[in-house]
Amino acid sequence: MSRRLGVTTGRVHHLFSDNESCFFLLADYAADVVDIREQFPLFPESATQRVASSLGVRHPSYPRSRTPIVMTTDFLLTRIDKAGKRSLVAVSIKSADDLRGRSRKSVLIKLEIERRYWLVRGIPWYLFTNAEFDKTVIDNLEWLSYFMVEHDVDRDAFDAQLPRFLAAFHTPSLQGLTLADRLRECAAAFGAAVSPELATDMFRYCAWHKLINLDLRVPIGLRCTPVILPAASDPRFTSAQEGGHNGSIVSC
Questions:
Q1: pTM here?
Q2: Can you tell which superkingdom this protein's organism belongs to (predicted)?
């Protein structure tokens, strides 16, 4: 189990697999996700038991016991659309191997119970597998998120410097430079007030909050040349990548 501090929620989230950690990064970054609840219990317990009975299958139970377990869904997301309307989306995460291995039948039974539980409540339910994750996107989000959860800075002073940093970062003459060289030039524009390390933190912050719109399908790192996409009119809804994670974790 891993513990990760969510940027979206400000809470520590408990994640039970690498696949859950990957999905969590996508959800935490998504522009339209405003709350993330993991391991969400499917209450009342009688509801999933009724679904199992209607399917003619045995409800999942605790090992070496006939006592029904409290079923959970890996993630329940709260989303907000451009009109400000909120909605819920339930998401289950599975390894692709789980869907074709020896335990395939029991896995599919659990998933069908989950699906029907949410169907009755009018809440969309989605299944994600590791086969759907773009490793480059995940690696990029992991690198960008480091500053968001690991650093403690004077936020007022940091925020006050961001407009000047963004102006320097988007200087046309810096296009085509590696990220390290570009950030070195940005730091130089501040004089001694900003180190290259602080400029890197500013870049991570701006990229995570979509003030700098990156193509996440392209590796991001100090030795790489970042691919900057056109800025959206509202940074909350900036697309992160076309045809993949596009600022919305799922499309309903």
A1: 0.88
A2: Bacteria
